[in-house]
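As agreed, record minuted below.
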Amino acid sequence: MKIEAIHVEAVGYRLRSPIETSLCPLSHRNGLRVVARDASGIVGVGEALPLPTSGTEELACTAERLESIGSKLPGCSGTLDELLDRVDAGLLDAPSARFALDTALHDLEARRLEIPVLRLLGEPVGRSVPVNAVLGAQPIDRTIAEARQATARGHTTLKLKVGSAEPREDTARIAALRRVLGPHPRVRIDANGAWQPEIALEFLESVKEFDLELVEQPVPADDLEGLSWVAARSPIPVAVDEGLAVPRIREAVLAQGIGSVVVIKPMVAGGLRASSRLARAAREKRLRVLVTTTFEGPVGTAAALHLAAVFGDPGLAHGLASADVVDTAFPRSLIPRGGELRSPTDAGLGP
């Protein structure tokens, strides 16, 4: 594969409704689109929508680094891995920029070979990928209304954002969900690192009666000791999310098998290749792999779907329902039906 040109342009999306989290409210996603073209005219597309609170660089850094590496790639040739080595070497501290170029090169190579991107990663685990709906941190009546809408669309797993309010308020929201919806659907909670270890454990003990599937990132991303302490004592399975963006935390989680689940965001991990390596390492420690996004447009969501189709735990719903949240035109293949997305079969990232 020989790279003829790299083009970078601005891209932005609004969310259908703001998402409240313990880290920050989200109402839009802005970033950059990368288009890579080879000598035969085939193109591959990637996007960078950096979100520093999730572990990426700032947008200004993304733009600077893409301009730098993008000017060096035209004229380069080699295998996909050789070209990705060049990208990684120049963007080690810019995971969002790495993700955009990594995705574009995977898309280009797969279209050149006329295969879906997932075939460059491995074999799909099934014909479809279950996906969850997201409920922001909001009043009980709105939480219930959105939960009903999500289940009416076919979602069987709901992820509830917690940690931005007092614990008693989050407990009331969880209790209301169970009271109104009954034992189904599955409910998981995401604290985005909001609690100190003692508070996290106290809260998890207080809500264990509600049969929660898991809790994502109960303690701050950089608190390894707290994460290990809570994971060893929690009555609810602990998933490591933002912590994976911190190198020493990631290394410890993989070395020691801390928690039960790893939440892999390819746009935070630095691309599909880095995410694949992370997923394999997690599997070796018997950690379940949950693939999600940082509320992406169609390009980033498609990339995450290809990853989930190969490495995602089939018993978990993955965070790929961007079409429910991001206000833009998604292809039919990325609009959940019956709470799932079909494993991609079209060339490249898909239509």
